């Protein structure tokens, strides 16, 4: 069964890499604030932090798993910890995937980035991107979250 996934990533730096992950078809949904049109993000940011958090919360609606795509600068994103904390509060399965080995639109890879503090804090599993593994990792995270007492 496909899971509805909320993706967290650094939009400006990693959109190309994130689309490689998303477009393999192993999971449902673009339930990620990061996949919104950049003009929507820009407009929302101009309206302030509460508007950004509202957009994130809307993106999380009906998601069952949160995947943090860890690029060179993901840990420095201002809302990554909030997104992970809200995902935990929802009971989503959570995992991180290092995507620095995926080539960008110019064929370049990136140095590995730091794992965001919120993922370290909850002990989320961290993987390095391998084609064909996403569906298994998402399902494993979902099952782990559902097995925890609420």
Write structural notes for this entry.
The chain is α/β, with parallel strands linked by helices and 150 residues long. Helices cover 43% and strands 13% of the residues. It has 6 helices and 4 strands; from the N terminus they run E-H-H-H-E-H-E-H-E-H. It has helices spanning 11-22, 38-46, 49-60, 80-90, 117-122, 134-147, and strands at residues 5-8, 65-70, 93-98, 126-128. A 4-stranded parallel beta sheet has the order 1-2-3-4. Helix 3 packs across helix 4. The two termini are 23 Å apart. Mean pLDDT is 86; it is low at 30-34.
How much of the sequence is in beta strands? Answer: 5-15%
Average pLDDT reading: 86
Structural class based on helices, strands and sheet pairing: alpha/beta
Shape: globular
Number of helices: 6
Order of helices and strands: EHHHEHEHEH
- Write out the strand line-up for the largest beta sheet, numbering strands in chain order: 1-2-3-4
How does the major sheet shape up? Answer: 4 strands, parallel
Count the strands? 4
Give the N-to-C terminal Cα separation: 23 Å
Low-confidence spans: 30-34
Helix proportion = 40-55%
Radius of gyration: 14 Å
């Amino acid at each position: 069964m496909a899971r509805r996934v909320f993706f967290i990533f650094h939009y400006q730096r990693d959109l190309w890499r994130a689309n490689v992950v998303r477009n393999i078809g192993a999971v449902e949904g673009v339930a990620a604030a990061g996949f919104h049109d950049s003009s929507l993000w820009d407009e929302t940011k101009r309206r302030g932090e509460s508007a950004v958090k509202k957009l994130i919360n809307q993106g999380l609606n009906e998601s069952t798993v949160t995947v943090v795509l860890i690029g060179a600068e993901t840990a420095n994103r201002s809302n990554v910890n909030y997104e992970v904390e809200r995902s935990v509060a929802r009971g989503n399965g959570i995992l991180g995937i290092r995507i620095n080995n995926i080539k960008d639109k110019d064929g370049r890879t990136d140095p590995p980035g730091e794992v965001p503090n919120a993922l370290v804090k909850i002990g989320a599993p961290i993987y390095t991107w391998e084609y064909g593994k996403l569906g298994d990792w998402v399902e494993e995270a979902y099952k782990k979250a559902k097995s925890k007492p609420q």
